[in-house]
Specification:
mainly beta; four-stranded antiparallel sheet; 0% helix; 25% strand
């Protein structure tokens, strides 16, 4: 894409970080700002204002704002478990 004139490309993915040994570092996002929160993303309440996180519209409803945890962090403090 850069070779054909795009100035910047952002790739948003969780792939590659889901099974990090010991779990992911915790990113703080107050529950009062969210409708629901998962490990790597959260649906923000309408009046939650600007966040320090990347916030994108949900593709099925652009009125829904989804915050993404930065880097390899997660909003949930749960550690993954590996089955033997």
């Amino acid at each position: 894409m850069l070779n054909v004139g795009w100035k910047q490309v952002w790739l948003v993915t969780d792939h590659g970080w889901l099974l990090l040994p010991g779990g992911l570092p915790k990113a703080e996002l107050p529950a009062r700002l969210t409708e629901t929160k998962w490990g790597r993303c959260a649906v923000l309440k309408d009046a939650s204002g600007d966040q320090d996180f990347l916030v994108l519209p949900w593709s099925f409803d652009p009125g829904v704002r989804v915050a993404l945890a930065p880097g390899i962090s997660a909003f949930s403090g749960r550690r993954p478990t590996m089955a033997a």
